[in-house]
Design goal:
Layout: H1 2-6, H2 11-23, H3 49-71, E1 80-87, H4 90-98, H5 100-107, E2 109-116, E3 124-128, H6 130-133, H7 141-149, H8 153-162, E4 164-169, E5 172-177, E6 181-185, E7 191-196, E8 199-204, H9 209-230, E9 239-244, H10 247-255, H11 257-264, E10 266-272, E11 278-282, E12 285-293
Parallel strand pairs: 1-2, 9-10
Antiparallel strand pairs: 1-8, 3-6, 4-5, 7-8, 9-12, 11-12
Helix pairs in contact: 3-5, 9-10, 9-11
Length: about 300
C-alpha cells in the first residue's frame, strides 16, 4: 500500500520497491509495475473521528502554549505550574482529558485545569470578519460590527457552544457563525491567553522558586548530555560529574539530585571548588564542570 501511495511522487523508487516486495510475497499482487495497479481506496469506516478530534486538540493546545512561552521568552525546559482551558461543552472536555498527559508532557507544565467557558476570569472579545460578513450584510455592516464588538462573555459562550448567534439589526435577523468572527481572549495578571478556533488556553507564567530550580536542573542535564556526546561516551556509560560551586546552582542540584543522576547516568555528582575542564552557562551564570567515565 505504501508503494502505491508514494508512486505519484517517487515513481521509480516506488516501482523498484514494489517489484522487490511482490517478488518475495506469495499469493500477492503480481503486476509488472506499481503504476499498473489500482490506487488504494480509503475505507471511511476505519477513520476514527473522535481520535482525530482528540489529536487536533492536543496539537492545538500544545501549539498555543509553546507560542505563549515564546512570547515571554520562557524556554520549554523551564517547567510551569498550570494551564487553564475553558471548555465549551462536556464532549470537548472529554476529548481534552483523553490527551491531557500528552499535552502536559509536550509543553512541560505540571497541571491542566478545566473551567467553564463562561468563567468571568477569562475576558473575551469578538472581532467581525468584514471580508465574510460584508458581502452578506453590506447595508447594515456598520451596525452589525458594533453589535458583535459589544458581545459579552455569556453571548460569546453561546456562540462557541452552539456554533452560531443571532442579532436583530435594523429589524433584520442576523445570524453569525464561528467562521464569521475572531474570538480573542485578553491576558490576565500572571497569565497569558491564546486562542485557536473554539479552543482557548491560559498559561500561568509565574515561576516559583521550586520551578526555577527544576528549570536549572533541566538545563544542567542538557549541558551534561552535550558534553557526554562531545566526549563520545556510549549511551550506557556511567559517569561521575564534578561541578564548581555556585550558590544558586548548588541548591538546584541538591533539590533535584536524583532526577539529574537518572537523566545523565551519574553515579556521583560532586560540588567542588577545584578548577575543572569545561565552562558552561546556565541562565547567565557561568560555572565549570568535568565529567569522567566510570570504569
Amino acid at each position: 500500500t505504501i508503494t502505491k501511495l508514494m508512486a505519484p511522487i517517487a515513481p521509480f523508487y516506488a516501482d523498484r520497491l514494489y517489484l522487490d516486495l511482490t517478488s518475495v510475497t506469495e499469493g500477492g499482487e503480481k503486476f509488472v509495475s506499481v503504476h499498473l495497479d489500482d490506487f488504494p481506496v480509503a475505507n471511511d469506516e476505519m477513520i476514527d473521528k473522535p481520535l482525530e478530534e482528540q489529536m487536533y486538540l492536543a496539537q492545538a493546545a500544545s501549539s498555543i502554549v509553546l507560542s505563549l512561552r515564546r512570547k515571554v521568552n520562557i524556554k520549554v525546559r523551564q517547567p510551569l505550574s498550570k494551564i487553564m482551558i475553558p471548555v465549551a461543552d462536556d464532549q470537548q472536555k472529554k476529548n481534552i482529558e483523553a490527551v491531557e498527559q500528552l499535552i502536559l508532557n509536550e509543553v512541560n507544565v505540571k497541571e491542566l485545569e478545566f473551567v467553564d467557558s463562561a468563567n468571568e476570569m477569562l475576558v473575551k472579545k469578538v472581532k467581525p470578519d468584514f471580508k465574510k460578513l460584508g458581502p452578506r450584510y453590506g447595508k447594515i455592516m456598520k451596525q452589525l460590527a458594533v453589535k458583535i464588538q459589544e458581545m459579552e462573555n455569556n453571548h460569546i459562550h453561546e456562540l462557541e457552544s452552539a456554533g452560531s448567534y443571532s442579532f436583530m439589526v435594523d429589524d433584520h435577523e442576523v445570524v453569525i457563525g464561528l467562521d464569521d468572527v475572531e474570538i480573542i481572549s485578553e491576558d490576565i495578571p500572571g497569565w497569558l491567553v491564546g486562542n485557536e478556533g473554539r479552543l482557548t488556553v491560559a498559561l500561568d507564567i509565574t515561576i516559583s522558586e521550586e520551578l526555577k530550580k527544576e528549570g536549572i536542573a533541566r538545563e544542567l542535564v542538557n549541558r551534561i548530555q552535550n558534553i557526554r556526546k562531545a566526549k563520545d561516551f556510549e549511551i550506557t556509560d556511567r559517569v561521575t560529574v564534578k561541578i564548581s560551586t555556585n550558590k544558586v546552582i548548588d541548591e538546584a542540584v541538591n533539590d533535584n539530585l536524583l532526577y539529574i543522576k537518572n537523566q545523565v547516568l551519574a553515579d556521583d555528582i560532586l560540588i567542588v571548588e577545584d578548577t575543572l575542564e569545561e565552562e558552561i552557562e546556565i541562565d547567565d551564570m557561568r560555572l565549570n564542570i568535568s565529567i569522567f567515565k566510570n570504569s
